[in-house]
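Quick one - inputs below.
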Amino acid sequence: MHKNISLTDLITNIPKAELHLHIEGTFEPELLFAIAHRNNISIPFESVDALRAAYSFNNLQEFLNLYYQGADVLLHEQDFYDLTWAYFLKAKENKIIHSEIFFDPQTHTKRGVSFDAVINGIRKALVDAQDKLGISSRLIMCFLRDMSEESAFETLNQALPYRDWIIGIGLDSAEVGNPPSKFERVFAEARELGLLTVAHAGEEGPAEYVREALNLLNITRIDHGNRCLDDDELLKEIVAKQIPLTVCPLSNLKLRVVMDMKDHPLKTMLKKGLMATVNSDDPAYFGGYINDNFITTAEAVGLEREHIITLVKNSFAASFISEEEKSKYLSLVDEFVANS
Ligand code: HPA
Ligand code: ZN
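Output:
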């Protein structure tokens, strides 16, 4: 039976996957203050409200400065557990049933926090999310591209004892001036270990960085990828190969990758045949979790029911789970759609 629920109700309740989510970017000011307090770390903001009021950015770097400052209060395994668990509670509210989570070990190891504390805390929350909330997940370890190749290799080595907890590697942080080619060798070594590869590309950087990420890093998904729309030949290749894009609309607005949500290219991407997905990136900093990303974009660019269903199905299809798990999840979506 087709009940024709409203678009907002459809978005709110349809089972979803999230594929582009930085765990450090889910650090809500309330939890940040609480953890800073228990770790005896002072932060240069008077209150939760003052911190939240500082979340206004002109570009990626301005955001990254606050994001790294926020992460500075994370010291112990328990801190990483609490951060990750808080995200899963939000994920549950947003009807996310599968999430592939980025973490940035170098953000912590460069401050003297052990790799073990970071990954053990996150991992325990992943296990609890499956057991207590029924949310499956995978972990993707990102290298900070403004750090050296040597540091990336060191991080890959630190991850070896935890190889089975990590599905793949990614590349994030300041894009311009740090092209994918800088990490060609470390990505090659990671692929030899059987790790899947993704990379942020074409967020602030040019289409050429997207091409490099595909050709030199052999990525299976492009994080952001907006700028591939500038290059027809590249666009054609990405469409032909159906390489998924993990698009983050509220992030794009807050970091001025798009100036107005009405100009967001999501609908154009679908029209051009790109396998786009919707994600929240750093929801604590960008003003909304996945449902807000869908709702805001749908209103601004005029997405319809079929667009939402396509975007949601793309996320499961583009995820790093087995074909069996994919078809299980996709039938859950079909079942929901048939009854809504
Ligand atoms: N881009 C680059 N690096 C990041 C981002 C992003 O959107 N979020 C967290 N690190
Ligand atoms: Zn990102």
